[in-house]
Amino acid sequence: MRHLNKFICASIFFLIITSNLFSQTYWHEMEFSKLIELTLDEVKESEYVAVQSGSGYIYAIGDDVKRIFSDNNKGAWSFTLTNINSEFFGGEVTTYYAPTVITNYGNYFQIVFATIPLNELLYDKVVKGMQEEINEYKNGFPEAKIEFGKYDERFTVTVNYYYKNEDSGELNGLIKSMLLTYARGIHAKACKLKGELVDDLWDEIANTHFKYLSKDYLFLLDPSYKSVEEKYDKIKEGYFDFQTAEKYNYFIYNYGDSIVFVMYETIDDDADSDQADLILNKMKKVGAEEFDDLYIDWWPGEERKKIYFILTYVFSDESFTYNGFYERLLYLVDDYFPSAWDELDKIQDDVLDRW
Question: Each residue of 111-120: pLDDT tens digit?
C-alpha cells in the first residue's frame, strides 16, 4: 500500500509539472503565420464593414497586407483597417485608412492601431467624444494590457496579450474580435466625430479672414488622407491630390502664404506635333478669358501629351474668409475646370477636323 501511495503521489506530481509546462503556450512563427493569414482574410470580408462602391467592394482590411521580417519577433504583419465616408467635394466614396500592425513574440502578441489623422484643431475634442468606445475596448478584453496614446495627430491603441493556452480557434476569435471591435468602434467613431466637429469648426471660422493658411485649416477639407500621408512632407503647409467622379485630376499645394491649384488633361493621341501645339495655344486663349494669372503649358516631361493649368492665390495680397476660399475651390473643381476641358474637346474636334 505504501508503494501504491508513493506511485500515486509521484503521478500527481508529474501531472502537475507537465500541465504547468504545457500551460505556457508558445506560438512559433510558422504556426502563427497560418493563423493570422486566415484571421485577416476573415476580418477583411466581414459582413459588418464590407460595402460596395461604384468601383467595387471596399473591405474591412485594405489590399496592402505586408509581412514584416525581423529577428526580434516571431512574425509581424502590417495592413490598414478601413472606414468609409461618401461626402467629399468629388461626390464619391472616400475610404479612410487606419494603419495596423500585428506582431507575434512567441509567448504573446501585440496589436497596434492608429486612427486617421484627427487634425490638431480637433484632436482633443475627438478623443473626448470617444471615451465610451475606449472604455468598451478596455472592458471587453480585461486580460489584455491596453494602452492609448498619440502619434502624428493620430489616436493610437496598443494591445499586448499573453497566450493562455488558447487553441487556434480561440485565438482566431480573439484577434478577430479585437480588430472588428476597433474597426466598428474606435476607428468608425473617430471618423464620425471628426466629420461632425469639422462642421462645427467651419461654422466658427466661416467669416474669419485669413492671410496665412496652416496645414490644419487646409486639411479640414480632407478629400483623401492617403495621398496626404504619402506626399505631406514635400510641402510646408500640406498637399493633397484627388480625382473627381468625372476622372479629372487635381493637385493642391499649400505654402501658407499662397496656395497653388493644378489640374491636367491628356490630349488626343491622334494629334501630331503641329496640331498639339495649336491645341495648346487655343487653350491658353480660353484660360486667359477668365484668369490673367492662369498658367497653361505642357505637363513637364509630357510635352504634347498632357496640358496642365496652374492657378496661384497669394494670401498676403488679399485677405479671404474660409468660406470664400472654399467656394473658390468648389468653383474651380466643379465648374471652371470641367468647362475648360469641355472646351478642349471642341478645340480638338476642330483642329483634328472631326465631326
Answer: 999 998 898 9
